[in-house]
Specification:
alpha+beta; 6 helices; 21 strands; 34% strand; rod-shaped
């Protein structure tokens, strides 16, 4: 038994309303396949807890298979293009070296010896042959010119030698300019082809990502056996519990239908039905105590609907409730006590201090003669405290605030003894 002096206090006012536990809609994810196909295996079931990335179903998808084939073909094309680019780069470097050598007008034997290590292709033979013919024509023209000066040759022979020299020079310069232009052009074309091939690979890879494949899965496409080319594993995008499942083996699915719903149950929503007469009393930020059997939780109103439901004529208020122990089940009905305010009273006692004796509400007061029941009039109250009206009991008077039922029981025994 605990005795304390009567004093003032605060009484929290509240409204008790019906509520329903629901899924936290901010943590729900509907799982939709990225590609159409036929379900070959179902790997997760209703009620299963899944981790992020866990496989849910296996689907055979021709669309995915085609996308993988395009990706593999683009990789092959890129390898070919890069090989050709490397070849053209080698030819370009060697051709540039040969052209620089020719600009120095070397002897033909020196040219052949130096150029023998340069891998250029048919242009090397064409260019060296034209250069050799030019050198020969040049030497013949010089010889005929000397002979003509000594009158050992005719004018016709000199003109023929000059014409041969001019023709060889024209052929050589034409070959030089053509090869100088051609090797640059072919290198540029090879670079463009390599860029196009790389872009095709990137686009094909993006397509696979759009169809739901991860980086690791794309990287493994080339190593997959042919039988898996159309295989698509639908994986859980988040961790949580499967709360809906709409798929069976052999079923045809498409990218417009959700086949799983996964919810994170770490928190749930408490949807309170607020009757219109209480709507003005409920505000965001108010404390809410939830009761269901022997379970209790506390939360805060974080949202109030601005629309009255046509069917129930109530306003919905929402509380986010911690559910890490999974004790709150979406769909169950509970009672919500919303604390709407606090009032100050001059005389406040615990609810447990008040007993009913001889049909009246009483508290047990301690005086010089002991502890006696004193009738009281009750005012505002909540589940914990109650207001004592009037001034019949002075402030500071000792009151039994705990286990007052023991005093009531003692009075009952005394009354029974007097009856005997």
């Amino acid at each position: 038994m605990v005795i304390e002096p009567l004093g003032n206090g605060l009484i929290t006012t509240h409204v008790t309303l019906p509520a329903e536990v629901g899924l936290n809609q901010d943590t729900i994810l509907h799982v939709t396949p990225r590609v159409p196909g036929i379900v070959t295996k179902v790997l997760a079931y209703l009620g299963d807890d899944v981790t992020e990335g866990a496989p849910l179903t296996v689907v055979e998808s021709p669309q995915l298979g085609e996308a993988k084939i395009v990706y593999l073909q683009s990789i092959q094309s890129q390898v070919i293009a890069e090989g050709e680019l490397h070849r053209q780069q080698t030819i370009s470097e060697n051709t540039a070296t040969l052209l620089d050598l020719l600009r120095n007008e070397p002897e033909v034997d020196e040219l052949r010896t130096t150029a023998s290590e340069l891998r250029i292709g048919e242009n090397k033979g064409r260019l060296i042959s034209a250069y050799a013919k030019l050198k020969a024509a040049q030497a013949n023209y010089a010889r005929e010119r000397d002979l003509r000066v000594k009158n050992l040759s005719t004018e016709a022979d000199l003109l023929a030698a000059q014409e041969g020299y001019n023709s060889s020079q024209a052929d050589y310069l034409a070959a030089f300019e053509d090869i100088d232009f051609t090797f640059r052009l072919r290198l540029q074309q090879a670079e463009q082809a390599a860029n196009v091939a790389a872009s095709s690979v990137d686009n094909a890879e993006r397509r696979l990502h759009l169809l739901g494949l991860s980086d690791d899965q794309v990287a493994n496409v080339a190593a997959e056996p042919d039988v898996n080319v159309a295989r698509y594993e639908l994986r859980a995008p988040i961790a949580g519990r499967i709360v809906e499942k709409h798929v069976t083996p052999g079923e045809k699915i498409n990218d417009a239908e959700s086949i799983f719903t996964i919810a994170n149950l770490e928190t749930v929503w408490l949807n309170i039905s607020v009757y219109t007469e209480y709507a003005g009393m409920i505000n965001e930020g108010q404390t809410v105590i939830i009761h269901a059997g022997d379970r209790t939780a506390t939360g805060v109103v974080d949202y109030i609907s601005a629309v009255v439901s046509e069917g129930t004529r109530t306003v919905s208020a929402r509380v986010v409730v911690d559910n890490s122990d999974r004790s709150w089940k979406p769909g169950e009905f509970v009672t919500a006590r919303v604390e709407t305010g606090e009032v100050s009273a001059a005389r406040v006692v615990p609810i447990a201090a008040v007993q009913t004796y001889e049909g009246r509400d009483v508290v047990f007061v301690q005086d010089k003669d002991g502890i006696e029941p004193v009738p009281v009039r009750l005012g505002r109250r909540n589940d914990v405290s109650v207001e004592i009206l009037g001034d019949e009991i002075a402030i500071g008077t000792p009151i039994v605030v705990q286990n007052s039922f023991l005093m009531k029981a003692e009075l009952g025994k005394s009354a029974a003894g007097h009856d005997h």
